[in-house]
Amino acid sequence: MTAAKAKSISNLFNAEPPPPLPQGLEDKAKDTNTTRMMNFRINDDARQAFAFLALEERSSIQKLMIEAVNDLFKKYSKPPIA
After folding, report:
1. Are 39 and 45 in contact, with CB atoms under 8 Å apart?
2. What's the mean per-residue pLDDT of the chain?
3. Which of 4, 32, 65, 72 has the maximum number of C-beta atoms within 10 A of its C-beta?
4. Residues 6+ away with beta carbon under 8 Å from 71
5. pLDDT tens track for 50-61
6. Phi, psi of 28 (to 5 degrees)
7. Using CA atoms, how far apart are residues 78 and 34, in angstroms rounded to an integer?
């Protein structure tokens, strides 16, 4: 790894937290109309397990994924905002 790349990676972990959102944008960040699609790959067994879990819980895969994302935020001491 080059020194420049190592420094760049180091800067990611030592970065200051982002500034707060400007007034008026805070509410928009929480607005459900500003949702975006995220695609990712998952193996067939995990996809099937999600589908069965959604059926068992009488929920949707979408709601389960939002719950999982919020749990991930909590794990890293971030507010659950998904």
Report:
1. no
2. 79
3. 65
4. 80
5. 899 999 999 998
6. -65, -35
7. 20
Encoded tokens for 15: 């970065």
Tell me the C-alpha distance between 5 and 11, whole Å: 10
The string of DSSP letters for 6-71 reads HHHHHHHHSPPPPPPPPTTHHHHHH-GGG---------HHHHHHHHHHHHHTT--HHHHHHHHHHH
Per-residue confidence band for 80, with pLDDT thresholds at 50, 70 and 90: confident
Tokens of 20: 């707060």
Q: Hunting for tokens 């008026």 — which residue is that?
A: 24
Reference 53, options 45, 61, 65; nearest CA is 61
